[in-house]
């Protein structure tokens, strides 16, 4: 598994752009100059016709910079949900970045398809949705709302038109301020069906979402380690650099192993997605679990090895720490994904057994 020359050029371009455009201001240049929003969209629908490996490269760079752009929510979740459902009419605008999308999916803190309780009823004037969705990435501002809801025949995916009546959007002040989330409430809201096979669509989107998020976690963990190594080289105590003490060296060595192990797991998932592997779910669960724990550990080490500087508002350490712990729970906890792996390997849990989130 190796990146090619084009992948390295893409990485260089995204890193350079994020250095010139900080914060949310990077979204416009990312979509116009690099076409990031349409990388994984087929050319016939306005995209670049690339795939999960190119998305992996972009996500690593967004993670390094903690860029607060709607890439994960719009270019990964919403776009891949439409592709999996086979409804392509909204894709050109999403691919160009003229609109952003949000997938309203999780309920009561769970991303498992079986946890969806929102209802969709078809009447004389079309479909109507009622229910509550939480942890909707960029849900307060997204132009395109895709909603998973249950019908009489099973789980399905719907598009709620912009400005539809009966939608309440509540933006939350999240611990990680670089990842906007919202709760969406639907009360008999007009909707259009875009896919009837919701279980398959959500399962596929969850695998791709975990794969992309794992790449982001690797990029952020790598940046934490770089900043920490630079600090312990410069910081002098008792007449010598802090990094020359054996205890610090061992801790950094452990962090390096965590980052590289996480990178292997994330790359394995991205390549499995690119190859259309039937084992993608297992690869994605391994990557999400391993990368979540690696990023959380390295971000914690970053704060401790920076000493007092690491707990100040002025230093970026707390931002990485918050992103690490927020991302660890997004799309399911590490324990929840290990539970998924166990189900594949040894079969479903017994009746009444507690299931991790």
Extract low-pLDDT stretches: none
Radius of gyration: 21 Å
Number of helices: 10
- C-alpha termini separation: 31 Å
Helix content: 40-55%
Order of helices and strands: HHHHHEEEEEEEHEEHHHH
Class of secondary structure makeup: alpha+beta
Largest sheet: 7 strands, mixed
Q: What do these coordinates show?
A:
The chain has 357 residues and is α+β, with helices and mostly antiparallel strands. 50% of the residues lie in helices and 17% in strands. The protein has 10 helices and 9 strands. Strands 1, 2, 3, 4, 5, 6 and 7 form a 7-stranded mixed sheet that branches. Helix 3 crosses helix 6, helix 6 packs antiparallel against helix 9 and helix 8 packs antiparallel against helix 9.
What can be said about this structure in brief?
The protein contains 10 helices and 9 strands.
Summary tags:
single chain, 357 residues, 7-stranded mixed sheet, two-stranded antiparallel sheet
Write the topology of this structure.
Elements: H1 5-20, H2 27-34, H3 52-65, H4 71-85, H5 91-96, E1 101-104, E2 119-123, E3 126-137, E4 144-151, E5 154-160, E6 167-171, E7 181-195, H6 198-234, E8 236-237, E9 240-241, H7 246-275, H8 280-305, H9 317-329, H10 334-346
Parallel strand pairs: 1-4
Antiparallel strand pairs: 2-3, 3-7, 4-5, 5-7, 6-7, 8-9
Helix pairs in contact: 1-3, 3-6, 4-6, 6-7, 6-8, 6-9, 7-8, 8-9, 8-10
């Amino acid at each position: 598994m190796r990146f090619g020359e084009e992948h390295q050029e893409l990485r260089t371009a995204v890193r350079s752009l994020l250095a010139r455009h900080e914060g949310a201001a990077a979204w416009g240049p990312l979509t116009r100059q690099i076409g990031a929003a349409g990388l994984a969209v087929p050319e016939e629908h306005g995209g670049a016709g690339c795939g999960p490996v190119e998305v992996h490269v972009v996500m690593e760079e967004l993670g390094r910079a903690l860029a607060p752009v709607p890439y994960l929510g719009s270019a990964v979740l919403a776009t891949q949900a439409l592709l999996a459902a086979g409804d392509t009419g909204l894709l050109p605008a999403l691919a160009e970045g003229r609109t952003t999308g949000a997938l309203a999916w999780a309920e009561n803190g769970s991303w498992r398809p079986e946890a969806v309780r929102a209802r969709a009823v078809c009447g004389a004037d079309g479909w109507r949705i009622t229910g509550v969705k939480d942890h909707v990435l960029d849900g307060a501002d997204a132009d395109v709302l895709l909603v998973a809801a249950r019908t009489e025949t099973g789980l399905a995916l719907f598009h709620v038109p912009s400005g539809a009546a009966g939608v309440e959007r509540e933006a939350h002040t999240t611990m990680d301020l670089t990842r906007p989330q919202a709760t969406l409430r639907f009360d008999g809201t007009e909707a259009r069906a875009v896919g009837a096979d919701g279980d398959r669509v959500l399962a596929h989107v969850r695998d791709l979402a975990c794969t992309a998020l794992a790449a982001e976690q690797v990029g952020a963990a790598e940046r934490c380690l770089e900043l920490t190594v630079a600090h312990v080289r410069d910081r002098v105590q008792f007449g010598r650099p802090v990094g020359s003490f054996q205890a610090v060296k061992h801790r950094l060595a452990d962090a390096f192993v965590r980052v590289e192990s996480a990178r292997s797991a994330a790359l394995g998932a991205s390549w499995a997605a690119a190859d259309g592997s039937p084992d993608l779910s297992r690869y994605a669960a391994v990557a999400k679990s391993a990368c979540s724990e690696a990023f959380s550990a390295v971000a914690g080490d970053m704060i401790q090895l920076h000493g007092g500087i690491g707990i100040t508002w002025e230093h970026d350490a707390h931002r990485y720490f918050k992103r690490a712990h927020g991302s660890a729970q997004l799309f399911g906890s590490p324990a929840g994904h290990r539970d998924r792996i166990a189900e594949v390997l040894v079969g479903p849990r017994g009746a009444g057994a507690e299931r991790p989130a």
